Amino acid sequence: MSRAIIPATIVTLIIVALQLEVLSTLRFSGVVVMLVWLWPLAMGLTGFTSLALWVALVGGVLFDTHSTTPFGLTAIVGIILAYGASRLGREGIGDLDSAAIWVTPVIGAVGGFAAPLLYTFGGAFALNFGLWRGSLLTMMVVNAFAFLLLARPVTRIAKVLSNVGDRARR
Known about the structure:
Layout: H1 5-23, H2 35-45, H3 49-64, H4 73-90, H5 103-125, H6 136-162, H7 164-169
Helix pairs in contact: 1-3, 2-3, 2-4, 2-5, 2-6, 3-4, 4-5, 5-6
């Protein structure tokens, strides 16, 4: 895992840049798809908990430094998603090779559905009620659909990166 942290951090930086420069300008039904939440979830499905938590923290903090939301809220949501997915990944539930083809996309869709809810309630807890703009249900559905489509390819990338440390030990 220690050798995988450098490539995972580099990919996290690329994902944050994509989120800020490309995805933040694209809106589907008025909603931004949050790749910075899908990436820790996908990394968690590989079963490497500490690596998933690292990319969630780095990606969330870097994203929050460029947004007007409560600092650390994106990281907290990413950490919750990464931890939950890593529990499933350790059990082999989200494994791309042995699980059914629909399992990873469904886990991604559930994460995409739950993430905006966690984010909005976290913002309310931080007394930032500006996050309630628009329809929460629309945010949940759009992110769930996007995560459903992107979960397998992003998890495939996460699996390749997380196996960097394993190949070095052989």
